[in-house]
Amino acid sequence: MNDLHGLSGLVEYPLARRGFVMTGLISGLTLATTRVEAQVVHTDTAGLEAGEVQIPVTDGHLPGYFARPAGAGPFPVVVVIEEIFGVHEYIKDVCRRLAKAGYLAVAPELYARLADLSKMTDVSKIVSDVILKAPDATMLTDLDSAAAWAGANHGDLTRLGVTGFCRGGRDTWLFATHNTQLKAAVAWYGPVAGGTSAIQPKTVLDVAGELKAPVLGLYGGKDTGIKQEDVQEAAKRARAAGQTVEIVVYPDAPHGFHADYRPSYKPADAADGWKRMLAWFKQHGVRAEKVFFL
User: In the annotation, is 166 catalytic?
Assistant: First the structure.
């Protein structure tokens, strides 16, 4: 398969075996299978405020999902960036997991202007018709808007972090070159190389020296879509510019090893990455005053 702007790692790990059904913002990630199983991890809303929101953006509103501890806060903020499949139940659960750790997490539906991803099942069509038609400049301002929404809704933007998965991992790197309020970023298997276009003009490698926040990159050693030498080169360029980057590679993990609704899920590596993410946030100023639930 030809590299699709750094997206080949996404399409080589189809959703196939595991999936879920939901209602609301994303009514379901429809899979090309007759068997639908629950994801491995499910986080409840006990002690939390959580639900769907409308986030003001430059041209209207974007749907999104948030979760935070109950109470006035203010709480440290983590912007959560989706995979290419929308703000589905797995991404919502990530938000709730962060809320249980004391954070206000918000995940904007970045592709809502272009399509309802809950109704798309062909990954190649998702990539060609949606992902590659979404301008990076709009993505970055939408993430700014999600952070601003959080700041106006019990969030503390002096403690702002970001994390993202797959394509969202790539966007995490880019957001760390863009937002000057950001204190820490954690990219889960985000592509750093690939093609460019007029609306997606630069790769992570192109801008790695422009980071404005420390980045932790979590990668799988068996990810056939992301070359480890490219990831290390991005880190090298960032460090040469005086930035802080740490790359952790899990030798036996494929792409999508944190996604517990997919066959690629590696529980031990996912759990270790999660602990490293929370420690990274704490180390770099995105610290929760209290862990509300374990």
Answer: yes
List, for residues 14-51, the tens digit of each pLDDT value.
Answer: 333 222 222 233 322 223 222 234 578 999 999 999 99
* Residue 38, C-beta contacts closer than 8 angstroms, at least 6 positions apart: 20
Q: What span, in angstroms and rounded, lies between the C-alpha atoms of 100 and 70?
A: 10
**3 is a catalytic site residue:** no
Query: Which 8-state DSSP code applies to residue 272?
Result: H
Q: Which residue has the tokens 């070359």?
A: 227
- Structure tokens, 10: 């996404």
Active site residue 116: no
**Nearest by Cα to 26 from 79, 106, 67, 85:** 85
Point out which residues pair with 68 in neighbouring strands: 49
List, edge to edge, every strand of the sheet that includes 184-188.
Answer: 48-57, 60-69, 104-108, 75-81, 155-165, 184-188, 215-220, 245-250
Task: Give me the residues paired with residue 186 across strands.
Answer: 163, 216
The pairing of strands 215-220 and 75-81 is unpaired
Kindly name the residue from 223, 258, 260, 284 that is annotated as catalytic. Answer: 223
Which of 255, 258, 260, 284 does the annotation list as catalytic? 255
225 near 14, Cβ under 8 Å?
no
Catalytic member of 88, 95, 154, 166:
166
pLDDT in tens, 157-193: 999 999 999 999 999 999 999 999 999 999 999 999 9
